[in-house]
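Consider the tokenized backbone below.
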């Protein structure tokens, strides 16, 4: 049973080690750096979404999280293939 527990722990640590940050693309709020204005009234840790149409016509939906220093961290991006839908 002990080898099974070790394999389980190794498998779980391998899942989290592969995570990477989402990089901003043209149209992202943080593309080219952090915005000049800060969200001072929003609670730290809260999220906001941003939608925009990419240059190739696809819709991008991004989720940002407000960091303790009031900067924005891009958490995830979903790209919808055909926009607007026919």
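A designed sequence for it:
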């Amino acid at each position: 049973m002990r080898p099974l527990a070790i394999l389980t722990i190794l498998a779980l640590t391998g899942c989290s080690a592969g995570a990477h940050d989402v990089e901003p693309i043209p149209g992202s709020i943080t593309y080219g750096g952090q915005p000049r204005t800060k969200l001072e009234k929003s609670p730290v840790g809260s999220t906001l979404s941003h939608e925009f149409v990419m240059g190739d016509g696809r819709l991008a939906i991004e989720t940002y999280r407000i960091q303790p220093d009031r900067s924005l961290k891009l958490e995830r991006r979903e790209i919808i293939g055909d926009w607007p839908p026919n």
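The first helix runs from residue 2 to 17.
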